Amino acid sequence: MTAANPSRRQAASSSDMTRRRIAILISGRGSNMASLIEAARAPGYPAEVALVLSNRPDAEGLVRAREAGIEALAIDHKAYSTRESFEQALDAALRERGIEFVCLAGFMRVLTNWFVERWQGRMINIHPSLLPLFRGTHTHRRALEEGVLVHGCTVHFVVPELDAGPIVAQAAVPVVPGDTEESLAQRILVQEHVLYPQALAMICSGRARLENGRVVFSQGWGAGGALRSPG
Question: Where is this site: Raises pKa of active site His (predicted)?
């Protein structure tokens, strides 16, 4: 057996030091959580998933996180008399573990201004619509009712106003004849699983940053692409 190369060990250690410690907040099965965990396994990905935290002890995503070797913690919001005391426990758990950045992934709690401001610029969410269209819930139903021909998902920084933070990335899909809420949601979920890891990587690598309330990118992209529906 040969000894490990010290320079390689040092390089690997240095690389790990640059990775930002991420917590993912969930309330359910954690499908977007799983896509972030998988992406973070890739060499060179600029973030590591250090914690998965849920407000529901029975959340399926906690089991999936533990199976992936990640600490999974439940802080049951029902055990706290106020929203503020629950969020103080949440904040304490994140800080005790040295969390640097938070990803909301199906976390079904409206956060208070106190918590959002405490993590301002360090917390993102993925929303199933092309914001600023269809903020809030039942986005696919509303898109179908409005008759839009293009729908999608958005990764954005979290601000006190619901689903109103600076946009980091978006993905669009066509709405086709015969679509239901379920069929549309499934196609958009596929895009969420691609978009969220990409957006997180851009932020953690410094390729996307907040500046004066907007997201600024270190490099541009081509203007030739388009999604047309019908098309």
Answer: 163
70-79 pLDDT tens trace: 999 999 999 9
Residue 20 near residue 101, CB atoms below 8 Å: yes
212 has binding-site annotation: no
Class of the domain covering 20-214: alpha beta
Q: Is the pTM of this model over 0.85?
A: yes
The string of pLDDT tens digits covering residues 185-227 is 999 999 999 999 999 999 999 999 999 999 999 988 888 888 8
- Residue 30 known to bind ligand: yes
Strands 150-157 and 167-174: antiparallel
Q: Which one of 127, 140, 156, 193 is the catalytic residue?
A: 127
127 is a catalytic site residue: yes
Domain ranges of the chain: 20-214
Q: Is the separation of the CB atoms in 114 and 84 below 8 Å? A: yes
